[in-house]
């Protein structure tokens, strides 16, 4: 598979390198620590885009802790693992969960990961880019933390959205992730969503804290994409396994996510 991966990656690179700036479709969400609301955000962000008429594909690449299927109460017979094991083609995996909104589900609880992971990531993204003409946006949910394989995966995407919370540990972990992406892969254009805010003022202050650090130490500025307030109905939606922005479409939180989607 690895030889095939290298050939396919080179083919796709040659086909797309002249148009990369005009065809930025592949977006990932990331966080320096777990529990920031990363999967909640990307699921609702994708739903909001689909409601605007965008064709959206969400791929759950949170290795070992994939949970998009649980959040939707959907049991999928085939996952991204079946593609990586050469049992199915990637184009056969998307499941339509809402009009214009397709999902490729991930694996959870499988600790045995393949070797030569970078080559496999190259192979995966070569195939993802071959699907790009079918969608307006391809969204990727990634694992939390700063493992090198996860950073390499993020480096293959066109844009990164960092999800942080107002607490200082989340800000510091988000900064650490940004620093590694910058130093290891030269990633500068990173957007930030501050989730679980008490209000907009807290969100603005939180973004200011992380942006001050990156500006001073890394000489690069982050982009503030927006804030999302904390609300108990978010937990209720997750517990009830429904899409929050669909179930609580008139809520402040849903409107905040919609504004972020409209600006992207």
Inertia-based shape: globular
Tally of discrete structural domains: 1
Mean pLDDT: 88
Kindly identify the CATH topology. Rossmann fold
How would you describe what is shown here?
The chain is 47% helix and 17% strand. The chain is α/β, with parallel strands linked by helices. The protein has one domain (2-10, 24-166, 229-263): P-loop containing nucleotide triphosphate hydrolases (Rossmann fold), CATH 3.40.50. The protein has an 8-stranded mixed β-sheet, sandwiched between helices. Helix 1 packs across helix 5, helix 2 (38-51) crosses helix 11 (252-263) and helix 6 packs across helix 7.
Task: List the SSEs and their pairings.
Blueprint: H1 2-16, E1 26-30, H2 38-51, E2 56-61, H3 68-72, H4 80-84, E3 95-98, E4 101-104, H5 117-131, E5 137-142, H6 148-155, E6 159-164, H7 168-185, E7 190-197, H8 200-218, E8 223-229, H9 232-240, H10 244-247, H11 252-263
Parallel strand pairs: 1-5, 1-6, 2-4, 2-5, 6-7, 7-8
Antiparallel strand pairs: 3-4
Helix pairs in contact: 1-5, 2-11, 6-7, 7-8
